[in-house]
Every structure is written in structure tokens, then in C-alpha cells.
Amino acid sequence: MPSPSLSIRHEDLDLPSPVVLVVEDEPLLQELMARLLRVHGFESRHASSVTDALAAAEHERIDAFVLDLGLGGESGLKVLEWLRTHPGYSKVPVIITTGRRMLPADQQNLLRTHGAHFLPKPHSHMSLINHLKKATRVNRES
Questions:
Q1: Looking at domain 17-141, what is its CATH homologous superfamily?
Q2: What pTM was computed for the model?
Q3: Residues 6+ away with beta carbon under 8 Å from 114
Q4: Is the Cβ–Cβ distance between 66 and 20 less than 8 Å?
Q5: Residue of 88 and 6 predicted with greater confidence
Q6: Phi/psi of residue 77, each to 5°?
Q7: DSSP state of 40
Q8: Torsion angle of the four alpha carbons 100, 101, 105, 110, in this order, in degrees rounded to the nearest 10
Q9: In terms of Cα–Cα distance, which of 134, 137, 136, 102 is closest to 119?
Q10: Predicted pLDDT of residue 142
Q11: Of 64, 70, 62, the residue nearest 130 (C-alpha)
């Protein structure tokens, strides 16, 4: 007789929900992401600019970032560069989303130099959630 599969859910462990900062300048996408994250057991915060994102990171524990590269004239890469040089955030998971076309070599460069994963817009919601679940689980175990 096969042994029962052991499945441990995040909510069964009585751990705080991972906090994800969504750095996105489109209000509709911010709201959509917030709802999606809540449904899948994450807490969400949002920032519309580089300045807002850095302020949020300095004032609250953030477990992962979903970062748009185009922030109304600003580059989301400024947030990524700050994270990678700031104590406490050097290894935090970052998922970059953008509607801009990026060459595969540029995507690999972001992963290699900054440890950031890339999801082009539009992307599947479950792809984003799966990336976040894996990234926050790995980050909490290390």
C-alpha cells in the first residue's frame, strides 16, 4: 500500500505570510497583483516609484520584490542595484517584469549579476506565483 503523501502548507506552519513589494506604476496592475498575492497566501505592499520602493524597503521587512523596469521615466534597475548593495537585501528574491523587449542575453545578465529572475509582460499569473513561492521558500530556508 503506498504511503500517504505528506503535504505541508504555509498556513499550517503558523509562519507569517511572506511580504511582497510590488513596484509598479500602473494602478490597475498594482490592484490585480495585490489580489492575486493575497489569494495565494502573500501579503502585498506596493510602490509606484523608485523613491517609494526604497522607502518601503527601509521601513519594513520585505521578503520578495516584483519589480517593473519602466516606472514613469525612472528605471526599476535603480531599486535592484540598491537592494544588492544594501545589508539585509543582498539576496532577497527579485522578479523583474516589463513590457519592454529584452534580449535573452540581457535577461541572463540580470540573473547572473543581480540574481533577478525575468518574467516578460504579459505573463501568466501562476508563473509569477510559482516563482514567488519557490523564491520565498528558498530564501527563508537559507
A1: Response regulator (3.40.50.2300)
A2: 0.79
A3: 80, 81, 84, 94
A4: yes
A5: 88
A6: -60, -25
A7: T
A8: 20
A9: 102
A10: 47
A11: 64
- Helices 104-114 and 77-85 sit at what angle, rounded to 10 degrees? 30
Please tell me whether the peptide bond between 18 and the residue prior to it is cis, using omega within 30 degrees of 0.
no
Neighbours of 92 (CB within 10 A): 20
Q: 112, 142, 135: which is closest to 20 by C-alpha?
A: 135
Beta-bridged to residue 66, according to DSSP, are 22, 95
102: its cell numbers: 529584452
**Length in residues, the chain:** 142
Q: Using CA atoms, how far apart are residues 31 and 33, in angstroms rounded to an integer?
A: 5
Q: Please say if the pLDDT value at position 8 is more than 70.
A: no
What's residue 12's pLDDT? 53
Domain range annotation of the chain: 17-141
Quick: pLDDT tens for 12-49. Answer: 556 688 999 999 999 998 999 999 999 999 999 999 99
> What's the pLDDT at 51?
95
